[in-house]
Specification:
- By secondary structure, this protein is an alpha+beta fold.
- Among the domains are: 315 residues, Vaccinia Virus protein VP39 (Rossmann fold), CATH 3.40.50.150; 76 residues, no CATH class.
- 33% of the residues lie in helices and 18% in strands.
- The chain is built from 27 helices and 33 strands.
- The strands form nine sheets. Strands 7, 8, 9, 12, 13, 14, 15, 18, 19 and 25 form a ten-stranded mixed beta sheet that branches. It has a five-stranded antiparallel beta sheet with strand order 22-23-24-26-27.
- It is globular.
- The two termini are 53 Å apart.
- The N terminus and C terminus are likely disordered.
- Bound molecules: S-adenosylmethionine.
- S-adenosylmethionine binds next to helix 8 and helix 16.
Length: 742
Amino acid sequence: MSRKKNAKPGRSKPFRNRNGQGSWNDFPVSERTNKLFEEYYKGQGILSEEEWTPFLESLKNDLPTTFRITESRAHASVINDMIKTRFLPEMQNVELDGKKFDPPFQIPWFPGSMAWQVDAPKRVIRKSEPFKRFQRFLVGETEVGNLSRQEAVSMIPPLLMEVKPHHACLDMCAAPGSKTAQIIEALNPHHTNSPGLLIANDADHKRTFMLVHQTGRMPSKGLIVTNLDASIIPTMSLGNGETLRFDRILADVPCSGDGTLRKNLEIWGKWGCNDGNSLHSLQLRILLRAMSLMKPGGRLVYSTCSFNPVENEAVVAAALNTNKGQFSIVDASGLLPNLKRRPGLSSWKVATQTSGAEKQIVWQDSFEAYESYVKDLPESDREKTRSWSSTLWPPANAEELGLEHALRLVPHDQDTGGFFVCVIEKIGAAETEPANVELSVPPPLDDVVVADETGTSTSAKRAGSPSIEEGSSKRSKSEPEASGSKSQAQSKRQKRDIGFREEPFSYVDPDHAEIKSIANYFALKEEFPKDNFLVRNEYGDPVRVLYLTNDIVKRIVQNNDFSRMRLISAGMRGFVRQDSAQRAEFYCKWRIPSESILEAVPYLGDDKIIDTDVATLRMLIEEQYPPIVKFSEASQKWMNEIPLGNTIVRFMPGDEAEGHLSMPLIMPVWKANTSMALLIDKKEKSMLSLRTFGEDICTFAPLKDNKDEDAADEEAAEEGAADQAVEEAEGEEGEERAVNKS
Ligand SMILES: C[S@@+](CC[C@H](N)C(=O)[O-])C[C@H]1O[C@@H](n2cnc3c(N)ncnc32)[C@H](O)[C@@H]1O
C-alpha cells in the first residue's frame, strides 16, 4: 500500500498514467484495497457478511461503459435503431485471445430502453474492428449531443425527479452537468415550447464553465447557469411581489465519492472516514437550503456517490428533523421497477480515525462519548481533532423517518458504481424558512477530498469557495431576504458582488431596428416572443449574438441583480450576426444557428422553409461549398430564387442518392453568389453522413482540379461568407456558446 502511505488527502491528483489517463493496467488490482475502508463499512453493516466478498470484488473491477441517448432529439429512435440494426449484429461473436465478449445491451431499468451498457474491456474495444467502429460512432454522436456517456447510477436521480416541461427546477451542485443535461431533456421533450426553468448552479467557477459547455450541446430557453455556494443560494424575485420557489430540486452534493472507486482509483489510497464526517455539515446546509426553496408539493432529490451513512441517511435525517412535519421521504419502490436497490439505513455508526502513519478507526458510540474522547486526548492531538456535529449520529426518531425508502445502489447488484438517492417531498401548504439547524462549528474543509462520478476530484474548500465558510456560520443573517416586492431598480441596489466579472444581461427593445429586420426577413409570426431577446451588454444592443429566453428566465433576469446571482449564462443562442465583406448584399445580417432551428421553426413564415430532397443533402455534405449549378434542376430553381444569406431547408424523408432519411430534417443553409453551404459544423456533418449514407462522405478538399486562377479567386471570395459562417458556427461551439457573451 505504498500509494496510501504517500497519499496526501486533498492534495493528491486523480490517478493518471503518462498519457494523462487513468488506466486499469497501471493500477494493479493488488493495490485496490484499503483496510480502513473495509473495517469501517463492515462495522457499519451496510451489507451482510456473505455479501462482503462479492461487494469488494465488484469494486475492484473496471466499470463498464454506459451511455444514454438524448431523448429530446427528434432522431433519438433513429440512433437507437442504428445501434440495434447496424452495430449489434457485427458485435455478436467477437473473440480476442480465445475469449468471447458480449455485445452491448440495453440497461433494463432505464425507461424506453434508451440507455446502453458496454461490458467489453478497453483493450477489446481498441483491438476488435466491430467494437472500434462502434466506439467511433459513440464518440462522434456524443460530440454532437445525440448521446451522453454517463455512469448508469448517475442517471437515476434525474429520473426520480419526474420533471415535467412546466416545472421550475434547480440543480444545486451541477457541474460538470451530466444530470443537468437529463433535466434539460425532460423540460424540453422534442423542443416543445417549454415554459419551465432550470437553474444549474455550481460553486466552482471553473466547473461552471464546464457546465455551460456541456449544456451548450443541449440548449434551452429556460436555462440559467449560476456560480453560487448552494448552501446560501439567494432567494430570487419574480417581480410583482412573487418569490421564486422550485417544483423540483436536485441536491447532488459534493461527497467523499467512495461509490466511484471503480474509476476514481486514487480513492483506494487515500480513503478515510474523516472525509465523510467533514462533508456532512456542508451537505446538510445544502439540503436545508434546498428545502427552504421548495414549493409545497414539490420534490427534492438528494444524492451522493458515497456509501457512507453519515453523508447520506444522517444528512437526510437531520434535515427532516430540522423541518419537522414539512417533508417526507417518498416511497420510490414503484419507480424504475427493474432497478435493483437496497433500502436506506435507519441505524448507523460514527467513527473517527487516529492521525499518524498507521491510521485506526475509533468508533464513537454517541456524540457525548465522542466529546469526552476528545477531552481525554493529549493536548497536541486535541488541537488536531475536528469538532463534528451531533447530527452525524442517528437521531432518536431515526426509525420513524422512513429512511428505508431511500435507495442504496451497490456495485455487485447490477455491475455499477455505488450511489445513494433519496426522494423527498414537501408536504403541507406553509411556506416558511427553516429554523436554523444546530450545527457545531463547521470543520475546515481544505484537506477533504471530494469526488464526483466523472472521475474528477477537487477539494471541498476549492469547490465551495469563496463564501462557503461565511455562509455556514451566519446562515440566517447572510441569507438574503425575499425580494419579491422589490422593483428591478430596487433589486439592482442589492449588494453587488464586486469580484464578479461577467458582462451584464439586458433585454433588447422589441422595436429595435435589428429585431425588426430579423422579423421581416424570417417572416416571424406575431406569436414570436420578440421581447425575449437577451444580450450581454448594459445597453440592450444587439451586437453579435441574440439569446432567446422564455418568460420565467426573463422575470428572473429582470428582477434580480445579475452579480448577486452570479449569473454566468441565460437562455440559448437565437440569432447570430453574420459579418462579412459582402454584408451589404445580404438582406439580413442575422442567421439562425443550427441548435436553435427547432425552436425557430414554429414561428417562421410558411414560405421560409424550403422542402428539398436527400440528393441535395448528399451534395451539401459531400462538398463544403457546392456550386449551385451542380444541384438537380429542381434544387437549382429554389436556390436561384432565395436571397443571399441564411435560409432554412427541410430535407424530406426518402431513399435516394444511396442514402436513407427516415424523418424530415430541418437545417440552416447559406447562399453565397454561386454556391451553397450547410451551416452545421464538420463533426455534425460527418455524423449525419454516417447516419444517412452509411459512411462519411465529407470531402472538404481545398480548391482543386485545373480551374483557371481567376475563377478560383472569384469563387474563393464569394465563398468567404459561407466559409466564415461555417467557421463561426464551429468556433462558437466552444467559445461563444460557452460564455454566452456578445
Ligand atoms: C458530485 S459533483 C456534481 C456532479 C453533477 N451533479 C453531475 O451530475 O455532473 C459535486 C459538485 O458540487 C460542487 N460543489 C462543491 N461545493 C459546493 C457548494 N457549496 N455549492 C455548490 N456546489 C458545490 C463541486 O464543484 C462539484 O461540481
